[in-house]
Amino acid sequence: MDTGTIIQNYIVDEILMRKKRSVGIDQSLIGSGILDSLTLLQLISFVEKRFGVQITDREMIPDNFQTIARIKALIESKQNAANESASTRNITERAYR
Between the CA of residue 49 and those of 7, 14, 52, 95, what are the distances in Å? Predict the structure, then answer.
């Protein structure tokens, strides 16, 4: 399942508790009142557990959580950075064998 779809389903099922059937990928989550400070922390906790990333304090800004598309981009950039780091580590380890 696509990262955006997973986030979308979580928001509808857990945050909105199915009061609304869908949330658009580019819909303003904060501006529309879907996310407030408490539900934002709930979403961040879900994202960290589900996608194996850590959201730093510097990344906990409204801009990163404005839409599902932005959340997805943040997750994917963190995963890509982790994959690149692991790949570099593997290359370095092979060079020293």
Answer: 12, 15, 5, 33
- Architecture, CATH, for domain 3-95: Orthogonal Bundle (1.10)
Q: Count Cα atoms within 13 angstroms, Cβ side, for 84.
A: 6
What does the block give as tokens for 73?
């981009």
Which phi-psi region, left, alpha or beta, contains residue 18 (left: φ > 0; alpha: ψ -120 to 50)? left
- Taking the alpha carbons of 54, 23, 27, 2 in that order, is the dihedral positive or negative? positive
- Name the nearest CA neighbour of 34 among 68, 77, 74: 68
CB neighbour list of residue 63: distance below 8 Å, 6 or more residues apart: 70
Instruction: Give per-residue pLDDT as tens, 43-81.
Output: 999 999 999 999 999 999 999 999 999 999 999 999 998
Token pair 């963190």 in the structure block, residue = 78
